[in-house]
Amino acid sequence: MPTMSILDKPLVSQPPQRRRRWPFFILISLLALLLLLIFFTGPATDVAFLQHFFTAPQHFTYSGHSDYVSSVAWSPDGKRIASGSGDHTVQVWDADDGSHVLTYRGHTLDVAALTWSPDGREIASASIDMTVQIWNATTGQRLFTYRRHTDGVFCLAWSPDGRYIASGSNDGSLQVWQVTTGAVLFSVQNPIAPRSGKTTPWNAVAWSPDGRYLAAGSYGNAQVFDAHTGRLLSNAYGYNGGIIHALAWSPDSRYLAVGESSGSVLIWNVATGQNVFTYNGHASDVYAVAWSPNGKRIASASNDATVQVWDALTGQHVYVYRGHADIYPGHFTSGAAVNAVAWSPDNVHLASASSDSTVQVWSDKPS
């Protein structure tokens, strides 16, 4: 039987190709969105939205993380930025152009907090994996792992002299320990909450720039301890029945800024225990506060997706940064919480970290 060539095989009719309809559906969706916008808002609002959407943002966005960004910090020389994330990594990158320097992968769960050593050589990172890890900021080599907490570590601060680290945990303990050996200088235990029967976690800790005091926040009022002995000096910084998320000292160590779940930031004179003023610009929890190095301004970051910058002496509002809140080309996440904010050492720029998985670097005087 002769072999049939492919040319001799009967042709099989092919089904007609379906026309691609997705451009049509996209066009219809855009028109429907435009009609809804026009129907529910006024023409002036619509024009402002379109102008904002098509205007290039006046900031740099670092998009190296694959999950929410919990923490951000500038190196003491201002050349690098470190950011910690729910993707279990800390990433270090160039503050000028955003180029990647290194990724630290020593943690097995979310990174909750980080801090640079005062000399900029090391980074300490705290994690839900119950550890604090100290590692070389240039090579990523792990130098020491602190394992004395029995639950996730939420906050940490490096002493100005570089000798000690304070770490606060969900296990209810605030521990101050020696950087090279892990030897505990002192530990403060939070009480058990009467309603839940669980220990009260520490959410924020801040070392005063003069090295004398340690401020810590949990539920209720902020507390200030002697940084060398752990002796409680005062817990009068409050009238706060909610949760303290953030603390920041003024550069001269005279004032303490307290960010809380009510959406307010309270400024306290530490020596007198007086509430200097209260900033009420946010619509939701304040997750981070940062005092500018020159002492003139405070930046507060919130669950309302904004960072607000205001005069540290008067509380007068300066401006609102909405880079994580708005939709624009390259940013299609609306209203993501801002979890951390940090000033550059020269007072010129700020870095803000968000649940939109980005860190954005922007000017203190946006155009």
Which value, in Å, is the CA radius of gyration? 25 Å
Shape: globular
Distance between the termini: 84 Å
Low-confidence stretches: 1-19, 44-56
Q: Look up the CATH topology of the largest domain.
A: Methylamine Dehydrogenase, Chain H
Helix content: under 10%
Return the string of H and E elements: HHEEEEEEEEEEEEEEEEEEEEEEEEEEEE
Q: Averaged pLDDT, please?
A: 88
CATH class of the largest domain: Mainly Beta
Which sequence of strands runs across the widest sheet? 1-28-27-26
Quickly give the CATH architecture of the largest domain.
7 Propeller
Strand-pairing-aware structural class = mainly beta
The number of E-state strands comes to 28
| Whole-number count of domains | 2
β-sheet strand percentage? 35-45%
Largest sheet data: 4 strands, antiparallel
Q: So, the CATH homologous superfamily of the largest domain? A: YVTN repeat-like/Quinoprotein amine dehydrogenase
Provide a count of the helices. 2
Structure notes:
By secondary structure, the protein is mainly beta. The chain has 2 domains: about 30 residues, no CATH class; about 300 residues, 7 Propeller (Methylamine Dehydrogenase, Chain H). The protein has 2 helices and 28 strands. A 4-stranded antiparallel sheet has the order 1-28-27-26, with no helix packed on it. The longest helix is centred in the first third of the chain and has 19 residues. The termini are far apart. The N terminus is likely disordered.
Tell me the layout of helices and strands.
Elements: H1 22-40, H2 43-53, E1 59-62, E2 69-74, E3 80-85, E4 90-94, E5 100-104, E6 111-116, E7 122-127, E8 132-136, E9 142-146, E10 153-158, E11 164-169, E12 173-178, E13 184-189, E14 204-207, E15 213-217, E16 222-226, E17 232-237, E18 244-249, E19 255-260, E20 265-269, E21 274-279, E22 286-291, E23 297-302, E24 307-311, E25 317-321, E26 338-343, E27 349-354, E28 359-363
Antiparallel strand pairs: 1-28, 2-3, 3-4, 4-5, 6-7, 7-8, 8-9, 10-11, 11-12, 12-13, 14-15, 15-16, 16-17, 18-19, 19-20, 20-21, 22-23, 23-24, 24-25, 26-27, 27-28
